[in-house]
């Protein structure tokens, strides 16, 4: 079993392999939470996936788990704290989702993610870049040893059990987007499709991955039956051929 870090924000999700850090965000007039994921590869190196702002305490807690090899901006809405992560871990390589370089041109990075994982990840991580949307894009991660799918915005699961959700977001989710208590892609996806078939082709491939858990950036972690959750979230996308 992995020991919990000295900072209680760094929470084990899969013993010895995956930790998460929840943090508050404010977006479009609503307050809710986002989540960083820390993945530890078999050789001990860490991937910081969708990093949050990293202060000294959190930096120490992460360092206690292992050396940070990579900082990842996995989606075009999940790159804002990459610079802070780079300052905290200057030796790490930075990899970004296609499109981040256009949204944040000044962001230094070492590579752009696609469907082929970097060589150091290949035995443990599968990737899938989901195209076809004019507002938002992301690269899905599958950590094979722990059978965990890691997403940012392609599945959100916000409802009665979710902490840190304000009245504004609750209103939108209940009465505008009808996503309350339901796994669904973020509204930016629903509003922005220009080639849903292209996305569906990728998501059908992702649904063949052998995952059971899901870490998502917004809402309730999925600890079992993750395949059914993803199928429900993506039903409207994958049915179009
Ligand atoms: Fe997000």
Descriptive overview:
- With 241 residues, the chain is an alpha/beta fold.
- Helices cover 25% and strands 24% of the residues.
- The protein has helices at residues 56-65, 82-88, 100-103, 167-176, 187-192, 196-206, 226-233, 235-238, and strands at 11-14, 18-27, 30-40, 46-49, 68-73, 93-96, 111-112, 125-130, 138-143, 148-150, 213-215.
- The strands form 2 sheets. A 7-stranded mixed sheet has the order 1-2-3-4-5-6-7. It has a 4-stranded mixed sheet with strand order 8-9-10-11, with helices on one face.
- Strand 3 and strand 4 (46-49) form a beta hairpin.
- The relative contact order is 0.14.
- Mean pLDDT is 96; it is low at 1-5.
- It binds fe (ii) ion.
- The site of fe (ii) ion has 6 residues, from loops.
Question: What's this model, at a glance?
Answer:
This protein is of the alpha/beta class and 241 residues long. It has helices at 56-65, 82-88, 100-103, 167-176, 187-192, 196-206, 226-233, 235-238, and strands at residues 11-14, 18-27, 30-40, 46-49, 68-73, 93-96, 111-112, 125-130, 138-143, 148-150, 213-215. It has a seven-stranded mixed β-sheet. It has a four-stranded mixed β-sheet with strand order 8-9-10-11, covered by helices on one side.
């Amino acid at each position: 079993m992995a020991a919990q870090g000295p900072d209680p924000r760094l929470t084990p999700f899969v013993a010895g392999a995956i930790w998460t850090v929840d943090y508050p965000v404010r977006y479009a007039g609503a307050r809710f939470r986002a989540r960083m994921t820390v993945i530890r590869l078999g050789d001990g190196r860490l991937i910081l996936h969708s990093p949050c702002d990293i202060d000294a305490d959190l930096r120490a807690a992460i360092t206690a788990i292992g050396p940070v090899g990579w900082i990842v901006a996995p989606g075009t809405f999940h790159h804002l704290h990459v610079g802070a992560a780079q300052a905290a871990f200057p030796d790490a390589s930075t990899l970004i989702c296609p499109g981040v370089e256009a949204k944040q041109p000044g962001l230094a990075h070492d590579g752009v993610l696609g469907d082929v994982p970097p060589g150091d990840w290949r035995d443990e991580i599968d990737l899938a870049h989901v195209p076809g949307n004019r507002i938002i894009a992301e690269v899905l991660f599958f950590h094979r040893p722990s059978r965990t799918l890691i997403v940012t915005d392609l599945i959100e699961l916000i409802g009665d059990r979710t902490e840190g959700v304000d009245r504004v977001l609750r209103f939108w989710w209940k009465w505008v987007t009808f996503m309350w208590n339901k796994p669904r892609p973020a509204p930016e996806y629903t509003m922005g499709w220009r080639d849903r078939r292209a996305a569906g082709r990728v998501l059908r491939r992702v649904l063949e991955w052998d995952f059971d858990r899901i870490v998502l950036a917004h809402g309730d972690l999925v600890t079992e039956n993750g395949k059914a959750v993803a199928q429900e979230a993506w039903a409207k996308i994958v049915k179009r051929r």
